[in-house]
Amino acid sequence: MNSSRPRLAAASKALRHQRAWFADLRAGAGRGRPLALVNADAPQELFRAMDVPYVVNQWWSSIISAKRMSGRYLEALRARGLPDDVEQYSALPLAEALAPRSDDAPWGGLPLPTVVLAECTGDTMRRVFQLWESELGVPFLPLESAAAETVPANWWELMRHDWETAIGSARIDLLERELREVIPRIERLTGARFRPERLAEVMDLSNQQAEWNRRTRDLLATAERCPVPVNDIIPAVMIPQWHRGTRWATAAAESLYHEVRSLVEDGRSVVAPERRRLMWIGRGLWFDMDFYRSFESSHGAVFVWSMYLALAADAYARYGGDPLRALAARFCAFRDQMYTPPWSVEWYVKEARAHRVAGVVHLISPDSRSSWFTTHALRAAGLPVLEIRADNADGRSLDPARLHDDVGRWLDALPEGSGRLTGTAAPADRSP
Fold it and tell me: How many domains, in total, are found in the chain?
């Protein structure tokens, strides 16, 4: 690992912004300002349109994990008679809230929210968020998770402008109706007011942000060599994602594109020579982000892809129609794009082809329901896949030294160079 390389400026700026923003959020909560906790796959834009500050549940889990405090808080769950080995990525903020308060809480600790909002993708997820209400008195607003009988494998070509066809009107109808019903409840709980014209502004800005992310993703895919490490790209992309619908977030996405473009034009490379291009499928390994650069010197290996930039490029933009219905369309199939075959598997193969990867490291969390299909599709396309089974936010679930050894041995057997995938090429994205 080349530790002397300066960090991507966009990543450093995003991290500084997030620290300052969170300090202001804590101060506001201390003065009685409402605060929402929202799951990553739920429509945070509702709160943005109502000017209610919110924290994304999984972002806060990543902070706890990065501070190597996940074990402490999860064990506090166990001490209360609750499981500490189920849905850890979603349960960590709850675990912190239930644990005894301490002076060394990450970033000073998360204030108790006024309301929590989540899509219930299973009985366990519903139970995790119900505990906020039953144990802490925080109202829980649940949204249902619907499925579809007809699935478009090429959803990334349709989602931006033809989302009714891609998702199906019945699914959008359900979530739009739920959003219209939950808005008055948020208003009563927070004292805020929903303004449709404000949501239209939020959706427009977040669409602009998605376009900049598409440009950055496509630029990295076509660059001769990877110019930026993935553990810089992730915060540079995801921190602005948690601020979607703001001018700051849109400007940050634009700044990231221009910085990456400058590095590509200068011929910069994370590792020289670049001998193996890798894809990381799964959630970020928050308790060991340095892992992604562990094999540069020893194997000339660089991770060129993670789902964070790719989803920011393909999964969020929705144009046309009523803003609230477009927001429903943004989220009612969100998990499908990552986890439901053939939505997910066709997308992963498409992205692997575009980024010319030679192999895939696939992190499989205990709650995964479709990992077999992902690995099978990639191997059928001619890609070597190494499966790792662990919870990404629970530092107890993985031995970093063993992980390093396992990946190193796998890389030793991996051919050098870019991927040469078999099968029919993925359809080109023809949308403007």
Answer: 1
Q: With contact defined as beta carbons under 8 Å apart, do 158 and 166 qualify?
A: yes
- CA separation, residue 18 to residues 182, 240, 257, 285, 400 (Å): 28, 9, 19, 19, 27
Q: What are phi and psi of 339, to 5 degrees?
A: -130, -15
Is residue 232 one of the residues assigned to a domain? no
The backbone torsions φ and ψ at residue 39, rounded to the nearest 5 degrees and listed phi first, read: -70, 155
Q: What is the model's pLDDT at position 1?
A: 41
Contact 414, 389 (CB under 8 A): no
Residues of the chain with pLDDT under 50: 1-3, 422-432
Neighbours of 159 (CB within 10 A): 25
Contacts of 314 (CB under 8 A, 6+ apart): 156, 159, 214, 217, 337, 347
Q: Which residues contact 281 (CB under 8 A, 6 or more apart)?
A: 307, 348, 360, 361, 362, 363, 374
| Nearest-angstrom CA–CA distance, 25 and 28 | 5
Parent domain of 137: 9-195
Q: What is the pLDDT of residues 100-115, one digit of tens each?
A: 888 899 999 999 999 9
Give the position of tokens 């221009």: 258
DSSP string covering 239-275, please? HHHTTTTSHHHHHHHHHHHHHHHHHHHTT--SSSS--
- Which amino acid, residue 355? H
Token output for 327: 């927001």
CA–CA gap between residue 364 and residue 375 (Å, rounded): 10
For residue 191, tell me if it sits in a domain: yes
CB atoms under 10 Å from CB of 72, counted, come to: 16
Write down the pLDDT at residue 33. 97
Instruction: Assign residue 143 the CATH number of its domain.
Output: 3.40.50.11890
Which pLDDT value is given to residue 391? 83
3-state secondary structure of 356: coil
pLDDT, residue 153, reads 79
- Whether 109 is covered by a domain: the verdict is yes
Rounded to 5 degrees, what angle do the CA atoms 344, 349, 352 make? 125
Residue 220 lies in a domain: no
- Give pLDDT tens digits for 197-220: 999 999 999 999 999 999 999 999
Q: Residue 418's pLDDT is what?
A: 62
- Give the contacts of 131 (CB within 8 A, at least 6 positions apart): 82, 94, 98
